[in-house]
Amino acid sequence: MFLLIDLSEKDKIHLELFDEKTSCKAEYSGRNRELLTSIDAFFNKQKFDKKGLKGIMAVVGKGSFTNTRISAVVSNVFGYALKIPVMAIAKEQVGQAQKLIPKLKKMPVGQYISAKYSGEPNIG
């Protein structure tokens, strides 16, 4: 199974577990700091063990500076710890995640994604 992380909407966490044939989506209300808790709850609800992850896609380039950064960092940490490929995708590609599996599988393990931002950070 593959995991899709989408934090592009304010205070919403979109997750999807999928493979070539099946897909299961979940949406959690909450701030970006609740991403790991939401992933854990989603995996538990699906009775899915993280060791079964084959790759992760994360939406970058849309949403807040912090949300984009957290999506990239969490994806990279899972990629490093589980030795699986990670891939950045645009918000417009979320509905095509299953079609992107061959591209994700070709991503080299150990090549990590960078956050792409939709605007300048607003710190202050």
UniProtKB/TrEMBL annotation:
This is Gcp-like domain-containing protein. It comes from Candidatus Magasanikbacteria bacterium RIFOXYA1_FULL_40_8.
